[in-house]
């Protein structure tokens, strides 16, 4: 059996997924609520919220593959 060097890959996988999910939900939810309450938002807010949604999706999608599959196999 390989020794994992103190890294807890299951915790890293879950934490990365939930951080990505939180970024995605905050980005899309704030954009929807902002447009519903205020009509139009400034362009910098639209860009920020869109970037949050994209980064959250990327982190949430990649984290299980990187920390759950690839890293334990490489070690």
TrEMBL record:
Domain of life of the source: Archaea
Name of the featured protein: Uncharacterized protein
Lineage per the UniProt record: Archaea, Methanobacteriati, Methanobacteriota, Stenosarchaea group, Halobacteria
Pfam families: DUF7860
Transmembrane segments: 17-38, 50-74
InterPro entries, per the entry: DUF7860 (IPR057182)
UniProt keyword terms in alphabetical order: Membrane, Transmembrane, Transmembrane helix
């Amino acid at each position: 059996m390989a020794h994992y060097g103190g890294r807890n890959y299951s915790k890293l996988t879950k934490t990365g997924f939930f951080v990505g999910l939180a970024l995605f939900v905050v980005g899309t939810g704030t954009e929807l609520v902002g447009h519903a309450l205020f009509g139009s938002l400034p362009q910098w807010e639209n860009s920020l919220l869109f970037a949050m949604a994209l980064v959250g999706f990327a982190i949430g999608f990649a984290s299980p593959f990187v920390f759950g599959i690839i890293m334990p196999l490489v070690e």
